[in-house]
Every structure is written in structure tokens, then in C-alpha cells.
Amino acid sequence: MDIKQLKAFVAIAEAQSFSLAAERTQLSQPSLSRLLKQLETTMGVLLIERQHRPLQLTEAGEFFYKKMRTLLIEMQTITSMTQRLANPSPELRIGFVPSVLYGLLPEVIATLKRAHADIEVRLCDISSYQQLKALKSGEIDVGFGRFFYQDAWTQQVLLRHERYMVALPKAHPAANAAYQRLSDLAQQHLILYHNTHLPARQAIVTEAQQADAERLVSEPPVTEPLLHIFAQYGITPLLTTKVSDLQVALGLVAAGEGITLVPASLQSVRSAQIAYRPLWHEDVTSPIYLQTLKDRPHPRVPDLLSAIYQVYEQRGITYRKQSVLPV
Known about the structure:
CATH architecture of the largest domain: 3-Layer(aba) Sandwich
Largest sheet: 7 strands, mixed
Structural class: alpha/beta
Helix content: 25-40%
Number of domains: 3
Protein name: LysR family transcriptional regulator
Domain HTH lysR-type: 1-58
Distance between the termini: 36 Å
Keywords: DNA-binding, Transcription, Transcription regulation
Number of helices: 12
Pfam families: HTH_1, LysR_substrate
Strand content: 15-25%
Family: Belongs to the LysR transcriptional regulatory family.
């Protein structure tokens, strides 16, 4: 078997059609059919049932597809990383989620450039989960996100935890309260804005928080980040609305349409229309992670991390110093 046969098989399996697979691969249908037949002959296994429409994988084909798809993705990742190692980019491409941009990221970039006048920086707005794919493809060299993921090709450095604040319309009765409790907010219209969800394993509450073990086993885990915060305390908001992004959520809060929770760094956004009040629960925080490749991070990533810690020290922010793996 060869790589062309494997790619042809995966394309056919995903398209469930020779004609659609031909469009996607820009190969003729006879060529795809021939490559698939060669692969099956070499293996001595029928992988795809031709008589069904759409095409269906055999049991062996289903197993082979899952393994080969993963293998091909890894091969593509290795190829891309090897090409970048041979031809490193002179610029540092940084991916970020919008909530980080409202915080200290601009100050960090300015500090980095002052210390290293030769560095070129390009910023890219990209979600936490999409940053993993972008790191492997070379679209970005480093990312700032708010969700923890385990991945064989990347590493994460926990920078710090940022407390959540409650964003309320200025006319809200609780806008001048010293703090807010999650139980008080359960009766409010909660606006959700995350496009990235927590991995299911992170959304399961601890044993000490289980009020009813049988109920927790039978119910699916809560993976929406804001709802997960409430679920940790056994609270379910009565009314929620999902919007496309954080800016829309804060716009609705400013218009008096509901409330939301945001990291503390955003409390200057729309401050004329929105009151930001601290949560009574000090452990309700949003982490900030630096994400980069594990084996071959960009050579300027340590400089970026140094600039981050310099800003933290100037601001009096508590952090635990860490380092990326050596280049």
C-alpha cells in the first residue's frame, strides 16, 4: 500500500461517494476506484460496500478508516513542522481569544518589542480550540487561550487565573451591590457567548459536590463554560440565550436584555452602560494559557514568556514562573 491509496480510501470513506470524493481530491472516479481496489487487494480485505448508496464502510473498513485518518493527520503535521524547521518564519504569529486582547496582551507585545526591536509580530483572532490546529499547520506560532486541552503535539503554560465579574446593566437593581452570588443570578436572564466548550471530562463535578450520585451519572456533563460555573454549585439558570460572541453579549447587557459573566480584564468595556460587580465566590476564575508546539516551539516564544512575566511583576500580579520546553 502507498500514501495515494490511503488518501483515496479516506476521501471515499468521508464523502461516501466516488463522484464527491473525485471533486474533493481532483482525481478521476476511475483513478479513485483503482486505488481503492489496489489497497483492498494488498490487504486482502473488503473495506467499502459498493452496492450501497451512499457508500458504506464494512466493519473492517470502519476500523481501518479511524486509524488511517489519525495517521494521515499526524503525517501532515510532521511534514508541516519539518518544513517550518528547515525554513523558520522571521515573524512571531500570535493567536488570541478576544477576552485576552482586552487584558494585558497589548502591554505584553509592547514590552516584547521594546526588549527586542528586531522582532516582527502578527496577531490572529482565533478560538482556544482552533489554536491547536493552527499551531500544527503553522498558521500561528503561539496562542493565548482559556481552555485546557491535552494534545501530543502541543504544550500549555498556565499563566494565571483571572476572576470572573458579573456584567449588569447600569439600571439593574443590583448594579451597586458590593458583590453577587451565583444563586442570586440564577433567576436572571443569562447571556452565553462561548464558541469553545469544555472537554466533557472537565465538566464533571467532584464527589464532594455530588448531591445525587445517580442523577449525575444519568445526566450528560455540562460543557458550556458559563453554565459549568453554575453547575459546580448545583445551580441551573432559569433562562439563557446563546449569542455569537462576547461583544454581542455585552451589547445585549448594555441594552438591558440580560446579564453575563466575563473575566475581570473586560470591566472597562462599555463601562458607561454596564456595571461590573465581583462574585462572592473567589474561586470562580478563568485561566489564561500560553499554547505552543511541544518539540520545536518558535525561538522567540521564551522572549514572549519573559515579557509576560515582566508585565506581571510591574502590575503586582501573582504568578508561578514556568518555561516552555527547550528549542
